[in-house]
Amino acid sequence: MCHEEGGANWSTPLVWIIPLLQLLCHETMSGSNSTLKIEIDDPALQSIEFVLVDEAQNKWFKNNGENFLIHIRPGHHQAQHSAPAATNQNFSSERVTRKNRDVMQLLSKHTSSSTDVNKAPEATPDRNPTVLDLFLKSLQEKNGCQVLCKKVFKLGEKEIMASMSEVQGKFKVHLATNHAEPLILHWALAKKAGEWKAPPPGVPPAGSTLLELACESSFSDAELDGLHYQVLEIELDADSYKGMPFVLRSNQTWIKNNTSDFYLDFSRRAAKTSEQKDSSDAGKGTAKALLETIADLEGEAQKSFMHRFNIASDLVEQAKDVGQLGLAGLLVWMRFMATRQLIWNKNYNVKPREISQAQDRFTDNLESLYRTYPQYREMLRMILAAVGRGGQGDVGQRIRDEILVIQRNNNCMGGMMEEWHQKLHNNTSPDDVVICQALMDYMNSDLDIKVYWDTLNKNGITKERLASYDHPIHSEPNLTRDQKEGLLRDLTNYMRSLKAVHSGADLESAIGTCTGYTSEELLKFVLEHIEDKSVESLVEGLLEARAALRPLLLGSTDRLKDLIFLDIALDSTVRTAVERSYENLNNASPEKLMYFIGLVVENVALSTDDNEDLLYCLKGWNHALEMSNKSDNQWALYAKAFLDRTRLALATKGEEYHNILQPSAEYLGSLLGIEKWTLDIFTEEIIRSGSAASLSLLLNRLDPVLRNVANLGSWQIISPVEVAGYVVAVDQLLTVQDQSYDKPTVLVVKGVKGEEEIPDGVVAVLTPDMPDVLSHVSVRARNSKVLFATCFDPNIFSELQQNEGKVLSLKPGSVDINYREIAENELLVSSSPDTADGQSAPSLSLVKKQFVGKYAISADEFSDEKVGAKSRNIAYLNGKVPSWVSVPTSVALPFGTFETVLSDTTNKVKELKEKMQGSGMPWPGDEGEQRWEQAWMAIKKVWASKWNERAYFSTRKVKLDHANLCMSVLVQEVVSADYAFVIHTTNPSSGESSEIYAEVVKGLGETLVGAFPGRAMSFVCKKDNLDSPRVLGYPSKPIGLFIKKSVIFRSDSNGEDLEGYAGAGLYDSVPMDKEEEVILDYTNDPLITDCSFRNSILSNIARAGHAIEELYGSPQDIEGVVKDGKIYVVQTRPQM
User: Fold this and answer.
1) Domain 715-836 adopts which CATH fold?
2) What would the pLDDT profile of 62-82 be if each residue is shown by its tens digit?
3) Of the residues 174, 623, 776, 1106, which is catalytic?
4) DSSP readout, 476-514?
């Protein structure tokens, strides 16, 4: 307690919850000593009076029968007070000055550790093996046993390890401990959670005492490498039991696992032994055994939060052993709890202090994983956010103690306040935060009871829920105006205690816990501006605080858990602040929207593992803002590319969450009887609870603004064909590519990757996805005269989906599609002549090629009988293109080689080696036999692609005889490209023959023609003005492919580039070496940032295309690369 000035008056400020900026406490420990530092910022307080209590032994300490008393010296407050925020060089009263740090300092990258969600984790730090580790190792080496499950429990500073092993077909439980005093094991077996069942006769070790519901067995002393330990072995039939509960006795002292029994879970053994036997799809893609264990223990867990958190603590190691899916299972369970899908308390009274201890134990275990396994930090953050911070006794106990003080001080000992007190006394829960807020709102509204119920109902608490508590709340508050002021003050303070336990992400309580450990002035600024209507400076301050906190989160600080909760709270406050700003941003300028988007991208990146792509998005937004401020006329086009890339990053993260979390939610939910509608939206709600949802909304607001400024319209027309057909809405083009529609069909498709085949009978494909205009699927759409377009307006796309089953007529313009509903009898008139009379397209004939007697040929031997058009065209270019255009050296494996090799045991490698070396190409075998094996595998993959699914559907569609399809292989040196390009010498979107259209990507061209997400840079160039290319769109592809000096083996069949049929991309081209995937930073790419360099490169690409078109005398589809500014053409074919 504190004395106010004058000495006669006492104040009961509940000092532990006075707002952070009025009273700050710092506790430090050194050995067996501890100190508590209290900072008081209230000049009215003259002294502090206190007593001490040892809660473990329930002992109170006084100063010779009196309270301890400390007098505060006059002027002490002023001397100790920190400098005002306005004088700090990084602050003003209105704004935080962001540090000019490199964005990449925020990088978090653990890709190599997290690619396999089922992979057991590898810990970062090493430690010396304990005697228990040595015991387990010796057990495995001597007996050849397989350890099926293992659990290590803390016994103060010592440990006990319980394990189950299979030794020569028998199951044995071994318990080993380094505890010094003699121990008795008090144990049983369990067929279900919470059960104690005495073991059957013959199972207990010799010398055991069999009791009614348990058994007692003594440990034996042992020694290993000079280290003492105690051990006990039990042989049993593990298939009959779920697990083994036990406690220990040393002399007359009982030892438990905190407040719970120890428990060795046999289901972990069952998971390992039955994994191969279980072919059921139920639980596929989950930590199935863990989820089933959780379901088995839920009956025990629903007794109270203490039970739930203690059970969760015991399962942390099992979850960790499984890997990411194990932690996903814990997250799903905790989210079910946090969202009230599970029972919180059932016929069990528990002290708040015990809940707090159990919660703290669980979060301590999660903190330990956070330190050790950085690849799981994002998942662990989400679990911690769902659980809350806990408080090791004192904070939880204050909930129980302070409500009595509040009732007594404000004369409200009966009615609703007493009913709430009884609930708090026996089982406090997150509902109490809402009840407290409802009471405060009720008093602030001048005791309007409707306001009380509004607050409760908005937060999901109904009269029925209040009445369902073990200690129900039936009454409404019935307070007087005389009670209002004091009760409001005390409940405001009490709310901090409730939030300290139940709202781990609550900002003020999180800051209070971390005082003295991080930037106090910055956090003070945040708290002072937390309710500002204009949130810009607040969000800046929050992000600066998160960035300053980041190095501590990556280190090994003592108070890591508290700092994680502070970071979670700062993240949550950014989200709510941005949501609060929506109305103010309705009429904001594009620059303001871009600035806010950059802030939210940074916030999402700070909460994300593997955030490299997001950080490059952030750099892109910053650069777009600079371009706009400089009135660069390309700013909107550039910003649109980064808007698309940011959307793609969010979609990728959403898909990742869905793949990891949704199967666990559905399986555990089915075991626990959770309602289906809750499970269906589980992952969606996880995403909506973070800043990604705010970011998506801001992107949706900016998109039409950018499209308007850049004159982009609502559509990109990839293949302009006027059509009519029945609307069918599907999720992915890939899932229907094997279908054949018997009526003209307009497919409205959510996802198109770029490598699919368009199904027979489809006349239009409309999608919000963004395949490149020159991707394989785009080329095949134009060849098949199918309308193919990307829709950028979600409202238009939604309207098209709602037209399913109707007949629409679609007429593409340059940047839009006009569509209208028509009657079925109009469809025949609107349909093309090919389909109006019911006639299908004529089939194509292939002449089977014969083996010419050579297994490898050089470019000067290429002919129609030996190789496909791809090889012949590249050979034709040699010596005919301008000198500044290079053509890679080529050799080939001619038609028939594959079929002949299958039936010939003779090794013909020598011929290929001679042809490659004779053409000046490196022979892979010169680098070792392994290199030739890599090349040979690549050749076989090209041959095998004759039977890929995509090619099969395409050839079937045109009735091409697959048996006559022959595959030659074009062998070329790979140019380690800076950029790759595809040219169509007639603009495919408009059909304009005077205009070249081209697309460019960074790295190899597979990201352009294959199924890689995002858009390439695109440009057009008039053939009569090749010095002036015009950029249509900047790149949004996040990935670039790069490769060292190597060889590529390209498919070259007799079924490609036939008249009226383009087989582009149906078959595979395979490099000998695997390409490296690199996440791209366009802000340091001269093609994007240097106008002169860009103009030079794009002009040269256009010139090369024009020269090749003139050489052939017809429109060409050309692929090539740029290396050190030089143009290389790797293939050309007639443009379809």
Assistant:
1) Glucose Oxidase; domain 1 (3.50.30)
2) 666 667 777 664 443 333 333
3) 776
4) PP---HHHHHHHHHHHHHHHHHHHHHH-TT-HHHHHHHT
